[in-house]
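Appendix C: a fully annotated inverse folding record. The material below is reproduced so that readers can follow the format used throughout the book. The structure is listed first as C-alpha cells, followed by the designed sequence.
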C-alpha cells in the first residue's frame, strides 16, 4: 500500500508539464525552514507530532532533511527526507509532498532479571497535499493533510530458569507493528 502511494506521488510529480508562464518562477536557490505540528489518527487513539524540515527551494521544488517527535502509540524520533512540488506562480500555492526515512523509538525498556525488551529503527513515510499562504515578509503559513506510516520492531527475550540439570534456553519473541495513520498538520515557513 505504501509503495503504491509513493509511486503515484512520484509519477504525478514527474509527469507535470512546464508551461511558458512558469518560466517566470525564480531560479535562485532559497533556504527555508518548515516547522509544523499535526494530529495523527489511526486504529489507536489519536496523537500529535512535531516536525522541522530544513532545505532549499528552486523552480517550485523543495527538498530538505527533517526530524521531529511522533507520539502515536510508540513515541519516536523520525529522521527523513522531504520533497515538495508547488503548483502555480510563486506566492500562495497548492503543493504535494512526500517523506521517507527512518525513526527511532524513544520508549522506556522494561528490563527485569528474567526478561529484556528492545526496540529497533523502522521505516517512516508520509505523503499528501497542502496549501501555502505567503505573507508580505516572505514567511508563510502551511496547511496540509495526508497519510503517514511507521513500522515498529520490538524484541522480547525471556530467560528460562533451569532448576534441574539440563539444557536451558532463551526464548525470543519478535514483534512488528505497522502503524497507518491519517495526518493533518499546520505550520510556519521561514
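Designed amino acids, in order:
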Amino acid at each position: 500500500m505504501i509503495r503504491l502511494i509513493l509511486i503515484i506521488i512520484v509519477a504525478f510529480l514527474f509527469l507535470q508539464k512546464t508551461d511558458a508562464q512558469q518560466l517566470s518562477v525564480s531560479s535562485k536557490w532559497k533556504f527555508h525552514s518548515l516547522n509544523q505540528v499535526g494530529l495523527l489518527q489511526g486504529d489507536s487513539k489519536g496523537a500529535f507530532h512535531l516536525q522541522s524540515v530544513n532545505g532549499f527551494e528552486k523552480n517550485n521544488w523543495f527538498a530538505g532533511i527533517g526530524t521531529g517527535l511522533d507520539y502515536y502509540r510508540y513515541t519516536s524520533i523520525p529522521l527523513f527526507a522531504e520533497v515538495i512540488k508547488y503548483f502555480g506562480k510563486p506566492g500562495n500555492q497548492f503543493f504535494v509532498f512526500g517523506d521517507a526515512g527512518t525513526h527511532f523509538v524513544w520508549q522506556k525498556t522494561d528490563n527485569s532479571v528474567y526478561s529484556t525488551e528492545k526496540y529497533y529503527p523502522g521505516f517512516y513515510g508520509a505523503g499528501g497535499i497542502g496549501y501555502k499562504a505567503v505573507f508580505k515578509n516572505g514567511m508563510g503559513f502551511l496547511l496540509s493533510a495526508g497519510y503517514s506510516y511507521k513500522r515498529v520492531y520490538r524484541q522480547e527475550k525471556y530467560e528460562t530458569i533451569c532448576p534441574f540439570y539440563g539444557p536451558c534456553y532463551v526464548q525470543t519473541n519478535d514483534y512488528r507493528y505497522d502503524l497507518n495513520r491519517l495526518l493533518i498538520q499546520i505550520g510556519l515557513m521561514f
